[in-house]
Task: inverse folding
């Protein structure tokens, strides 16, 4: 077994993110997990991830607050506590906290697909 306690999680700076604090919980540099990487992201009010498509699919699970996910076709879905979505490989998305309170999101991405599993956590 491999345990990672949140205070010991490795911080990282995801590319094209503003107003977001991110920590790797499992996978990548965080642990020896081979099948996925799991990160937790704290979105400050107004925090965002710019519109971008990544090479692998991702799962987002909102743990608290609200996160707005906008697609390349400009459809916006608001995810609340324990709501989730899957972003397909090469599907562009923008993520934003449009509220006045912090939002927390779990991000899960696969590994073993020719990527390091750390690109867009």
Result:
């Amino acid at each position: 077994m491999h345990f990672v306690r949140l205070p010991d999680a490795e911080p990282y700076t995801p590319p094209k993110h503003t107003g977001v604090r991110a920590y790797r919980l499992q996978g990548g540099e965080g642990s020896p997990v081979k099948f996925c990487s799991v990160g937790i992201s704290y979105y400050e009010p107004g925090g965002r991830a710019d519109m971008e498509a990544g090479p692998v699919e991702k799962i987002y699970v909102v743990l608290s607050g609200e996160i707005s996910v906008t697609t390349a076709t400009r459809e916006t879905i608001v995810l609340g506590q324990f709501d989730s979505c899957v972003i397909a490989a090469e599907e562009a998305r923008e993520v934003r906290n449009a509220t006045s309170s912090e939002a927390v999101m779990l991000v899960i991405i696969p590994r073993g697909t020719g990527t390091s599993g750390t690109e867009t956590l």
User: Anything to note?
Assistant: The mean pLDDT is 91. Residues 26 and 32 are 8 Å apart (CA to CA). DSSP finds no helices and nine strands in the chain.
